[in-house]
Amino acid sequence: MTLTSPPNQIGDLGSQTKNEISGADALMDSLRRHGVDTIFGYPGGAILPIYDAVFKAEQEGWLKHILVRHEQGGTHAADGFARATGKVGVCFGTSGPGATNLVTGIATAQMDSVPLVVITGQVPRPAIGTDAFQETDIFGITLPIVKHSWVVRDSSEIARVVAQAFLIASSGRPGPVLIDIPKDVGQEMFNYIPVEPGSIKPPGFELPFAPEHKAISAALDLIENAEQPLLYVGGGVISSGAHETLAAIANRFQIPVTTTLMGKGAFDEREPLSVGMLGMHGTAYANFAVTECDLLIAIGARFDDRVTGKLDTFAPKAKVIHFEIDPAEINKNRIVEVSVLGDVGISLVKLLDLSNQRKINPRTTNWLNKINNWKNNFPLIIPPKEGEIYPQEVLIALRELAQDAFITTDVGQHQMWAAQYLLNGPRQWISSAGLGTMGFGMPAAMGVKVALPKEQVICIAGDASILMNIQELGTIAQYKLNIKVIIINNHWQGMVRQWQESFYDERYSASNMSFGEPDFISLSKAFGIEGIVISERDQLIPKLQEALASEGPVLVNVNVRKGENCYPMVPPGKSNAQMVGIPEMKK
């Protein structure tokens, strides 16, 4: 039989023992059973049997397929979908160049611990290894950048592989997985036996252990005795949904909170205990705090080099507690006094519960006063309202005009300014942190908007980054996705130019983007999308308001100062306290 029944009848397959269907139909039914209702992808020869099953699923009404204009856009869109919702994102690509075009997006998700199931078509089984047309070993190519991968050589294994894939992608430290399906496996008819979610585990698979009481108690002992503690919060708090518990702990113990780029939104940056982002372009007061603290409480963070600066000078006075789900991260970059292994959400609840059994007397008053003095003496730059528009002005304006928006970014100076000035809730900050992938922002915004159609979604882009995946304007136009794309246009690869100015004696090699820059407004209109240009300060607020009020997608090109640098900045090889672009510390 073929799988053509309405969606409310497909579930009846589970009560039957044998159903002869194609491998492609079995794949789609398995995805449906795992809650998939949206797929981002691009068809091609080897994956056509699967796309034939996609056609049926769309006709049945349970699936929405979003046709991207490039496979990389598909992975980033699935990534944005996953980050905004916490669900597993799914994308499709064909064999050969289709599969290799997915690699950057897979690596992006791996570095930022985002759950994806990536499904590729492959040449038929007899042709594998013969250098057939559009054959690549995508299984081998992606081994270093996935949690697990499969080549399905038997159609009867599809349901089991899908169940394992979703379990692995979403459990423990999340990440991407790959399923490679030869064309003839998708065409093959067989007796299909469904596999329900969670009913099967891969050999050797273990869910994370519960945190040990002894470790929780040891962590609490250190916290109680610290006078200058600091909570250092990463993306693990977002993925575990632990932001409310984190806030309760910070307030109970009166501990200031700094976040990584991935951790933005885990703690309300409007709260007095927030010191914002730390690291290379973090706030001065966050970097001073991590340098002076006597206890560093790392939660779901991995001591990345952009956070630590010169590693042997990072938190030099501090004992370290590390709450972490991935044992490979413990003592990898920094030796710790106490490690608490397990889901950080569960660990923080246990820490809070144990603290409720003790009398807590916070000892951080002097510490908080010191931090408040740093905040007053070293605030983020508020540029003067004179001359050309400052890029920071654009972000400050958006902070006021779109306070509850979901924000995606590309990579570069605009990303760091956005991280410094915007204030986001949990899952509302979506940016490529670990891999630093230019071209991420706009397709990620597509994924967010498809997942959350009622939410306001804004992409902050650079004039160089936007060109990496500019073709996705076609996807936005096709599906009428109400996304606002704001280009912070300084006509340079801004961060490259800043480094060349600072560390390469102003030798600006291959970083000027003025020559060959398109007319972004004409380009957006060619795709059927409204375009707005802003070049004068008195236009900034009213035209941003106009764009945000529009019911359809809008691309806004804001021409800003060409030579503005992103400060504070920790130069390479320096400690976090040795920032440039801030006033000298008063003795």
Layout of secondary structure:
Layout: H1 7-10, E1 20-22, H2 23-33, E2 38-41, H3 48-60, E3 64-67, H4 71-85, E4 89-93, H5 97-100, H6 103-111, E5 116-122, H7 138-141, E6 148-151, H8 158-170, E7 176-182, H9 183-187, E8 189-191, H10 213-225, E9 229-233, H11 235-239, H12 243-253, E10 257-259, E11 274-277, H13 284-292, E12 295-299, H14 305-308, E13 319-324, E14 338-341, H15 344-355, H16 365-377, H17 391-401, E15 406-409, H18 413-421, E16 429-430, H19 441-451, E17 457-462, H20 473-478, E18 483-489, H21 494-503, H22 520-526, E19 530-534, H23 537-549, E20 554-559
Parallel strand pairs: 2-3, 2-4, 4-5, 5-7, 6-7, 9-10, 9-12, 10-11, 12-13, 13-14, 15-16, 15-17, 17-18, 18-20, 19-20
Antiparallel strand pairs: 1-8
Strand order of the largest sheet: 3-2-4-5-7-6
What class would the helix/strand composition place it in? alpha/beta
Task: Give the name of the CATH superfamily of the largest domain.
Answer: Thiamin diphosphate (ThDP)-binding fold, Pyr/PP domains
**What quaternary form is this?**
single chain
Tally of separate domains: 3
Number of helices: 23
How widely separated are the two ends? 81 Å
Number of strands: 20
Beta-strand percentage?
Answer: 15-25%
How confident is the prediction overall: mean pLDDT? 95
Computed CA radius of gyration, to the nearest angstrom: 25 Å
The major pleated sheet works out as: 6 strands, parallel
List the uncertain runs: 1-17
Q: Can you name the CATH architecture of the largest domain?
A: 3-Layer(aba) Sandwich
- Share in helix: 25-40%
CATH fold-level assignment of the largest domain: Rossmann fold
